[in-house]
Each structure stands twice: as C-alpha cells, then as structure tokens.
Amino acid sequence: MVQSNGRPRGNQKISRTLWQVMAIYRWRIGGALLFLIAAKVSSVSVPLVLKRIVDTLSRPEQLSALPIYILVGYAVVRFLSTLFTELRDLLFARVTQHTVATFASSVFSHLHQLGSRFHAQRRIGTLLPDIDRGTNGISFLLGVGLFTLVPTVIEIGMVLAIMGTRYSGWYTAIISVTFLLYTGFTVVFTSRRTIYQRRVNKLDSTAKGRLADSLINYDSVKYFTNESLEERRFEGIMERWAGAVLANQKALFALHVGQSGVIALGVGAVMLLAGEDVVARGMTVGDLVLINAYMLQICLPLNALGFVYREMKDATVNAERLFQLLREEPEIVEPPGLPALRVTSAGVNFENVSFHYDPERPILHQVSFRIPPGKTVAVVGGSGSGKSTLARLLLRFYDVTAGQITVDGQDIRTVSSESLRRAIGVVPQDTILFNDTIAYNIGYGRNGATQEDIVVAAKAAHVHDFIASLPLGYDTPVGERGVKLSGGERQRMALARAMLKNPPILIFDEATSALDTQSERAIQNELNRLSRGRTSLVIAHRLSTVVDADEIIVLEHGRIVERGSHAHLLAHGGVYASLWQMQLRAEVRNDANAPTDHAAESTA
Hints:
Elements: H1 7-22, H2 26-57, H3 68-113, H4 116-121, H5 124-166, H6 169-216, H7 218-223, H8 227-279, H9 285-327, E1 348-358, E2 361-371, E3 376-381, H10 387-394, E4 402-407, E5 410-411, H11 417-422, E6 424-427, H12 438-443, H13 451-460, H14 464-469, H15 487-501, E7 505-509, H16 517-531, E8 535-540, E9 551-556, E10 559-564, H17 566-572, H18 575-603
Helix pairs in contact: 2-3, 2-5, 2-9, 3-5, 5-6, 5-9, 6-8, 6-9, 8-9, 13-15, 15-16, 17-18
C-alpha cells in the first residue's frame, strides 16, 4: 500500500534534492561526522570508566591511595562527550541554515515564476502555512533527524561490540532482539500514524486559509452582518481539526506505550541475567553497573530514535507540500537565452489573435488591430467581452492560442518576458499597494529611484501636496493593500509609479472605473498627459474616458464589431452609439438627483 502511492520514491527524491543543496558544504558535513563519532566514543567510554571506579572502590582494603586519575578521567570523558557534540552542532549549523534559506528562497522565486492561472486558484492563507511547515520540516530532517538517527545506530553498534567481547552472548542476543522489536514496532505504528498527521496538516491549512479569507473580506462580513456565519464555518473546521488531532494523539499513545513495553521487557531480561551472574560470582558489581549503564544508554537513544523517526516522518510529510510547490510547472516556460526586446518606435500589433482559458469557453476570436507608435487605442465593450484579456496577453501573462502579438515587429514569444514587461507601464483598475511607506510604493516603479525622483513623479501625478500634508510625509505607511488611502489617492500613487517607470508603452486597464466622477475627471487629465507621445492601450468601461483616443475598438463576445474615432462611431449609430447614449442618460439622471439629495440634507 505504501509503495503504490509512491511515497518511498518521493522520499528518495527529497533526499537527493537535499543532498544537491548541501553538497557545497562537504567538508563541514565530514567534520561534523568526525565529531559525532568522537562524541559517541567518549559517551560509550563513560560506563567503562565507571565500572573501573566501582570495582576499584569496592575493594578499599587493596587501595594505597585514592585513584584520582580514574575519577578525573571520568569527568574528562563526560566533558569530551558534550564538547564533541557541541562542536558537531556548531560545524553543521551553517549547512542546515543555508539549506533552509535556499529552499525558502527557491519557493519564493518559483511562486513568482508561476502563471496567473495558479495565483488565481491559490489561497494565500493555505499557501503560507505549507511553506512554513515545509521549511521547518527540512530543518528538522537535516539537524535533529540526521544527528540523532546516525549517532544512535553508531552507539548501539559500539555497545553491542563491547558486550559481545566481554560478556555472555545472551546479553548481546537480548539487546539485539529488543532493538529489532522496538524498531519494527516503531516503523509499523509510525507509518499508520502518518495518515492522521497528513489529515491534521490539511485541516490546519484549511483553517488558516478560512481565517485569512475572512479577515481579508472584513468589510463584506460587516456589510452583510455575517459574523456569526463566519464563526460557525470556522468552528466547524476547527472541530474537524480537533477530532483529527485527537485521533493522532490516540495513535501516538499506542506508539509510546508499545515502545516503553518493549524497552521494559529488554531491560528486565538483561538485569535478571546480570543479577544471576553476580550472585553466581560470574561477574563483579562493576560489571552489573556497566551493563545497567549500557542498557540505560541504549534505551534513552532508543526512545530518542522512536521520537526522531516519528518526527522525521512528520517532517517528511510537511516537506512534501513544499516540494510539490517546487514541482508546479509555470504557465509559460521560456527557453533559455531569449533575446531582450528591442524597442525602437514602440508600435504594437495584434494579428488574428484568438485565446481561451478553457477550450470550451473561447474568449477572443481572430482579433486584429494596430497601435501606431505614440498613438492611443481604446478598447470598450461589456463585461466578459475580452477587454482585460488583451492587456494580459500583451504583458504575456498568458500566451495566445492562435495568431501573434508583436512589438516593433518582434513576436513577444521570441523575446524575454522580463524585457517585454520592462517596456510596459500599467495603471490598473484596482491599485494594490505594498504594506510599506508611500515613498516605497512610488519608488517601486523603478529600482534605484532616488527620493528626488520619487518627489518629481509625485508632483507630476498631482499627489505631492497631499503627501506633504501628512505628518510623516513620504514615510507614511499605507497599510495592507493600501487600505489607509482612498481610491483616488491609491490611483494617483499608481500614476506616479508609472510616471517614474517612464515606459514607451502604457496600459490603462479601466484605470478610473472605481472612482467617483470628480476624481475620475481629475485623474483622467493626468492619464492623458502621461500617455502623450507614448503607445497606449486603454481598456475602458466609461466611454467618456476614451473620447480623445486615436481609435476606439468595440468588442462583443471576443470579436471586434466596430472601430473608428469617437465622432465616426457616434455617426455610425451602432453599438458604440447605443452605449454612449445609455451612459449619457445615466449621467443626466445622476446630475438631476444630486441637487435633490443636497436639498434634502439641508432640510434635515
């Protein structure tokens, strides 16, 4: 059953991958192993010295002086055991931390390489615990796991060798049988318990995902007074989690009791045999102390071995999800060595572009249009018509299903995505800011931007005066996702960021649709100024924002149904003219209602 689900093969792959990262520290690993062996030799020598002390002091009539050298030697051997262990940990610490840091960085980098489809489906509240548990699991496998499992095996081997050469073979046989029974019992019961651990991990991630999702949507919860609903949903998950933890604990109880029972049987059998030998004068009291010390020395590692094996299985389960994330294939895999985009005039062509997320639901059908250098083309249409998909395709978040997109005659699939996106500035509909300062968020538009550059961009976006009025100015934190700022303020930040980037190509993806009319008109002027002399693609819902575009394209169900200037499309009397009239009537109604509402407020 274990083999059928591929776990051993997966564990071997984890081990190989870990070794590939650790291999650069071979000398540290070798040195740590030498210290490990030295520590175990010292540890195994302690009972031998103790036996010598007991045998010597048990016959005081034969002593002419206190055996100081043996007593001091006992203290020295115990100290050396601890010293070598600490030196081992100190030498290996860099290996562990480097490996954990490498995997954390690899996952972080890999997640940024994955496509929009993956990030649209993932839940951040579930993803972060998976990464956290995975890195902790790797740390355990390298540190505690490696340096408990190997020393225990070495120590048991050395004890068996000493017992076999000094005493009856029955002692070695009892210890060996105890070790084999303990190991077999631990392996079988730990494998069964792994099923419960995976369930606990899954429910833990689900609970954290639910918690994060609910807190992110705090406003929606309040809007619909659904606090109790959220509490019930979360409590339901936590009840299932508690049940899984309880089942896990019961399995753990059976494991611990069984392990202790096996050890107790082994210790009892050895001590009975040793007691008989002492009574029969076949061995000294020092031999009894030695055997007892070795049994304790073996039993403690056996307990540790059981714990470490169990925890290693748990750590492997935790690391599995991390490695699954690393095995996620990016949406677009670029061949190495793609040339950078060469921007000359920044002309953009969409040539017979078709696209679908799902073959059953095509989004775009044979869409062709050109954005001449320095000109503005606007795309309008209803929801689901494919407007925003055009922007995502130009940024190469997805590849076209058919046709091609070119910039200055270069198919964007034949150049590096990094160089392509470096040439494009985006002012999105919903500006999401980092939980940092205003200066950091504006400066994000260009790496290495100075404070002066940031201020110039803010002034160009007409947001400098607002920032200067704040007590902390440009050092003001904006909060998570920029929640401390209004929609208009966030949009101006996005505008300043795009100005700082100073790209030859611009995308305005419904950049003002979330704003009120007054804010929209103010920011629209800045957008027009920013796009002047640049190649611009404007995705718009409000037609009033595109009247000055050089060409307007009307999309319906992924097809171009009309194209032309604002005046031409109005005169044509088609879809665009109908949309224009509808929005015009809506604005007239809003303007007519505004004085009435104001008068009502005054009366109140």
